[in-house]
């Protein structure tokens, strides 16, 4: 499995699935969530409303993940996950790690080979980008190691598609190590 860091817009990535840093309502919001909803089109909101009306009546829990079609996106799938909000006292890194591992689990179930993550939890949810990067890389590597031990052929490419040079620099620092 390859891990790559890309600066840019996650909504235009030519991957099998993109991960949406959603809120628990799944009904859109700001940042990455709003961008994905706008790019995917109104069908995404309709699919999320259907999830809320059926299997997720109380919303998507923090650290969980669920998939919908990608609709107007180049990606076939959107995997929605809810990061922990540090401002609301959700400071356990295990909750953040769960966002990445549960998204990978859902992706494997869909047969996804390439997956793009945003910096889940960074930004308005108050997590430091370097901490998000460390938790994310550790979670992805651990998940892949467990999958390979079980003989499973899963996701081959994980992109971290990040907004802004500062976040890119923080993720590269963690991935490549300090100079």
Automatic annotation (TrEMBL):
InterPro entries on file: Macro_dom (IPR002589), Macro_dom-like (IPR043472)
Pfam families: Macro
Start and end residues of each Macro domain: 1-179
Domain of life from the UniProt record: Bacteria
SUPFAM superfamilies to which the protein is assigned, alphabetical: Macro domain-like
Name of the molecule in the record: O-acetyl-ADP-ribose deacetylase
């Amino acid at each position: 499995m390859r891990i790559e860091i890309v600066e840019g817009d996650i909504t235009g990535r030519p991957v099998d699935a993109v991960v949406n840093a959603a809120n628990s309502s799944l009904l859109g919001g700001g940042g990455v969530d709003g961008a994905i909803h706008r790019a995917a089109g109104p069908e995404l909101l309709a699919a999320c409303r259907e999830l809320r009306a059926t299997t997720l009546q109380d919303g998507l829990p923090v650290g969980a993940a669920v998939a919908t079609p990608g609709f107007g996106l180049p990606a076939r799938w959107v995997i929605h996950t809810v990061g922990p909000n540090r401002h609301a006292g959700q400071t356990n890194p295990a909750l953040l790690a769960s966002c990445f591992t549960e998204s990978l689990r859902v992706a494997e179930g869909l047969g996804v080979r390439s997956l793009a993550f945003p910096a889940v939890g960074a930004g308005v949810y108050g997590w430091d980008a370097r901490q998000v990067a460390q938790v994310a890389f550790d979670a992805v590597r651990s998940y892949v190691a467990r999958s390979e031990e079980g003989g499973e052929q899963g996701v081959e490419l994980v992109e971290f598609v990040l907004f802004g040079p500062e976040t890119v620099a923080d993720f590269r620092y963690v991935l490549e190590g300090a100079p």
